[in-house]
Structure to design on (630 residues):
């Protein structure tokens, strides 16, 4: 007999997920029933649905008690990440809505699938909303469960949606190339991760991370979990864009439509880090001594390669791609200092959670600015395109400078508070070398973060005044990101407190 | 001690040996007297026209993908139908019916979407 109580608690545990899924289906239906002019309606429905989901996610956060029902886990950490990814999804909706209006005079409905004009057209604007909703649902499933197979299904839901979003700019051949590259590389990474999960199951007979402390590993089969962990790390490092697995990042980030790049650099990374922390915590119960060394080597490589390669880029999107690689390096640094005598202490992840929130605000803001930089049906994101922006569009240039300064980590912004948290944990736990390396690479990064400022203010006026209004949705997201960057920078304590509460749930 | 998977390895080895031996022997010992009708793709039937590796319209792929989608739906429906009686006996009949209904509705929305978007028009 089915238990009503059980159904109700399942409903409560996943309330934001159910709302988002339902909204996604309604969007699909709206878009299907009015394909000609559904775009705006779909956007409104999607935005409202996400806002409602955000409201309930906040209520769950405040209500406190942990619900673990079957395959769903709704603890403090999950709720923290749910709020974060829904925020990212909302900002992405705002960014992409105006981007497509600017880029293509795209008709709201777009062209029907299977009938592509010779010039090629942008994907239908309504589909972007639907895909965003499903991607966010995937992200939540990615970390709102302690069952590895459910995590994997979430990962695939997210990835499939993002593959399509990357190829959305059908007029631009680079967008298609990026989608193809991301799809092929992403499939390999998913296969690695899945193979690792399966081998891990073969070794311990358990898919549930929360049950790992009960399993016993026989010494003669200890090599199996080790292989499994290496494979899983490969899959994670790909999704997190860490250095041995970063080759796809610049091309994909450059080719994807600018708002989608922002979504990938924040949402995908946040979700993957959430699961990564969960997995690292569970791996404490297995004989996997190599993990901490692997992480440290990866941090060193990521910080050096990410920051040095960003210097020589001449496209701002490409530069931000390398910048996102190096930020993943700082985040991984924050995790790798949690290892004391071979065991991972999840309490250090509070600094990482705060860093993720701050990083999301500033990166989404930077990509929101770049989404405005559209010129005669093409993206104008070369460094040369920024020349004189400080005079032709002062507001835009000012907020872009703010985000650059924050990404660099200068005091009144969140970038400083976040980096300070990571480095102070590193020093406290005795990882002086890594902390020094992080500070040196931060200094190196000043070169490429300050270069746009030089281009905007000190390289003369632009040849032609590009002027133009900032569309209202983009203005909204810019203001939100800018306020968040400053607020989290000058008064970070309440948010660090939130992150600490969330981090205690990892155990 | 004998490994439990040893028989399976033996099966693989035997299979490789036998196929290799028979194919190899017939290649070495068999008489070879080719003529045009022996070498054609179908000895009896249509004459082949052109290469099989042609480019063909992307519409076929679209239809194939949609077919797989609804094929999978049936793949899930059949085991559900087989075990449904057991669920009724446990008093979970209505619950399982609603669960399957949700699944079908989601797929039906997808079908409606591709239909209205014109993916089923053969133009």
């Amino acid at each position: 007999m089915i238990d009503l109580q059980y159904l109700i608690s399942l409903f409560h545990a996943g309330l934001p997920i159910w709302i988002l899924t339902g909204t996604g289906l309604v969007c699909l239906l709206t878009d299907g029933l009015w394909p000609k002019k559904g775009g705006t309606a779909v956007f409104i429905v999607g935005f409202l649905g996400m806002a409602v989901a955000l409201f309930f996610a906040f209520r769950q956060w405040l209500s406190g008690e942990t619900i673990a029902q079957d395959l769903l886990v709704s603890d403090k950490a999950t709720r923290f990440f749910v709020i974060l990814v829904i925020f990212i999804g909302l900002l992405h909706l705002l960014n992409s809505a105006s981007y497509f209006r600017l880029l293509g005079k795209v008709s709201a409905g777009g062209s029907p699938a299977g009938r592509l004009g010779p010039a090629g057209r942008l994907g239908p604007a309504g589909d972007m909303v639907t895909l965003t909703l499903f991607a966010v649902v995937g992200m939540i499933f990615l970390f709102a469960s302690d069952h590895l197979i459910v995590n994997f299904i979430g990962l695939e839901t997210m990835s499939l949606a993002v593959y399509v979003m990357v190829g959305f700019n059908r007029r631009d051949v680079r967008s298609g190339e990026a989608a193809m590259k991301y799809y092929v590389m992403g499939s390999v990474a998913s296969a690695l991760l899945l193979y690792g999960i399966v081998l891990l199951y073969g070794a311990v007979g358990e898919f549930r991370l929360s049950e790992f402390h009960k399993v016993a590993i026989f010494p003669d089969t200890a090599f199996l979990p080790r292989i499994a962990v290496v494979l899983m790390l490969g899959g994670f490092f790909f999704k997190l864009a860490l250095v041995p697995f970063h080759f796809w990042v610049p091309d994909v980030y450059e080719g994807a439509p600018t708002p989608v790049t922002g979504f990938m650099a924040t949402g995908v990374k946040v979700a993957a880090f959430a699961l990564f922390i969960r997995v690292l915590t569970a791996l404490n119960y297995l004989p996997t001594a190599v993990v901490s060394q692997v992480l440290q080597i990866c941090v060193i490589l990521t910080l050096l390669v990410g920051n040095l390669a960003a210097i020589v880029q001449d496209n701002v999107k490409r530069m931000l791609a390398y910048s996102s690689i190096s930020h993943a390096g700082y985040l991984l640094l924050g995790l790798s200092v949690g290892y004391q005598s071979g065991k991972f202490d999840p309490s250090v992840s509070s600094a990482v959670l705060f860093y993720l929130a701050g990083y999301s605000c500033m990166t989404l803001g930077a990509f929101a600015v770049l989404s405005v930089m559209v010129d005669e049906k093409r993206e104008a994101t070369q460094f040369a395109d920024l020349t004189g922006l400080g005079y032709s569009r002062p507001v835009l240039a000012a907020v872009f400078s703010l985000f650059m300064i924050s990404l660099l980590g200068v005091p009144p912004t969140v970038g400083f508070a976040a980096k300070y948290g990571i480095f102070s944990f590193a020093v406290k736990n005795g990882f002086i070398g890594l902390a020094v390396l992080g500070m040196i690479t931060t200094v190196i990064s000043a070169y490429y973060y300050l270069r746009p400022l030089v281009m905007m203010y000190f390289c003369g006026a632009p040849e032609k005044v590009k002027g133009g209004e900032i569309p209202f949705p983009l203005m909204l997201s810019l203001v939100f990101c800018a306020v968040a960057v400053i607020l989290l920078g000058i008064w970070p304590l309440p948010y660090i407190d939130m992150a600490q509460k969330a981090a205690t749930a990892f155990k | 001690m004998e490994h439990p998977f040893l028989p399976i390895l033996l099966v693989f080895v035997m299979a490789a040996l036998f196929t290799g031996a028979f194919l190899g022997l017939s290649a070495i010992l068999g008489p070879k007297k080719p003529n045009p009708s022996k070498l054609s793709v179908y000895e009896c039937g249509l004459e082949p026209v052109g290469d099989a590796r042609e480019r063909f319209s992307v519409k076929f792929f679209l239809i194939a993908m949609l077919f797989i989608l609804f094929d999978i739906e049936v793949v899930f429906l059949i085991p559900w139908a087989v075990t449904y009686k057991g669920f009724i006996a446990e008093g979970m009949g209505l619950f399982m019916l609603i669960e399957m209904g949700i699944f079908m509705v989601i797929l039906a929305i997808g079908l409606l979407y591709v239909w209205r978007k014109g993916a089923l028009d053969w133009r």
Q: What stands out?
A: DSSP finds four helices and no strands in chain B.
